[in-house]
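does this look right to u?? adenosine monophosphate version
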Amino acid sequence: MRAWSLARKCAGRSIGFVPTMGALHEGHASLLREAVSRDHVSVLSIFVNPAQFAPNEDLDKYPRTWDADLALAEAIGVDLVYAPNAATMYPAGFATYVQVERLADGLCSRTRPHFFRGVATVVVKLFNAVLPDHAYFGQKDAQQCAVIRRMARDLDLGVEIVEMPIVRETDGLAMSSRNRYLGPEDRQRALCLHQGLQRAEALLRAGERDAATVKKLVREALSAVEIDYVELVDAETMAPLERVDRPVLLAVAAQVGPARLIDNIKFAPVD
Ligand code: AMP
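got this back:
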């Protein structure tokens, strides 16, 4: 992988990189299209990273759709698909992990404490192999984006992190590889995540600045699902806020039948 990238870099080519766990959908496709259009060459990685799953999570049943993923990558014009296996990434004796402090404390870490350590570690390893100039991530995983951006700055990785908007189904559900776990009834119930966030956005636009009031409205909209969290945080540091007095992230996570789903909006007050 690195030899391929070094040859391109020495020839003055920029490398755009999209790391994924496969089971690609339009959300991933939007990142790939951006990489293909903005960079000279583009790399997609597909690696279902064991380090970011807890023993009780869905590592074994995480969807794997290799042929469809390759067809999509080819149709978009991706130059190379990098798909290392777990034994290559985590050889016997593996002992080094990257821990991003504070930003990785709240939100998804509360129920998935192992998660960002696994993500940060694998992303550094992938960056070291692919040597990208730009790496494209989705706002769908907003805390992940913030963690990786912080890590890239702190560890001088020399990679520009590009955050792309959330791609949704026509009815508003944020696209996710895990949506395929949903049966028809859960699929319908899952719409309340986006609907709750939309209502909150309307309230924020109307001038509401009290975080508790905004979160209460979202909690009410999520009454039919099992809420993991509803949080309003500083969009950059992920620190919880009581007042909306700077750009904020309003993020939700909920268990909907067999699937744990996340969604969010960003809001910047102009007053
Ligand atoms: P994953 O394969 O779920 O690890 O996701 C790989 C990348 O795709 C991450 O940067 C995600 O944030 C991004 N992504 C996943 N779903 C969406 C979506 N609905 N819209 C935009 N980006 C997404």
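The mean pLDDT is 96. idk if thats expected tbh
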